[in-house]
Amino acid sequence: MSLVVKSELCPQCHKEVIKPEVIDENSTWPFCSEKCRDADLFGWLSEEYNISRELNEEEVDEWARKKFGKVNPYDPNAF
Asked: Side-chain half-sphere of 6: how many Cα atoms within 13 Å?
């Protein structure tokens, strides 16, 4: 039996990150570290990043389903 390991690149520093089995409120996924997670958050809070258009609730939910497999990645009972 082979174990499939999923990995992606950290959106902040582009270092390879292996996806954890469980994503919870303490997880830094998809970032490689708290430092990169906090740097990304600062980008949003300082309005360095923005969304080019207003999204409706269905679009946000669809994005969350594609990214996390469920609407709220921290709610294990979401589906």
From this structure: 6
CATH number belonging to the domain at 1-48, selected among 3.10.620, 3.40.720, 3.30.50, 1.10.3470: 3.30.50
- Residue 36's CB is within 10 A of a number of other CB atoms, namely 19
Would you call the peptide bond into 20 cis, given omega within 30 degrees of 0 as the criterion? no
> Binning pLDDT at 50, 70 and 90, where does residue 32 land?
very high
Instruction: Judge whether 12 and 36 are in contact, CB under 8 Å.
Output: yes
DSSP classification of residue 26: T
Can you give the pLDDT at residue 13? 94
Instruction: Outline which parts of the chain fall under CATH 3.30.50.
Output: 1-48
Contact 13, 1 (CB under 8 A): no
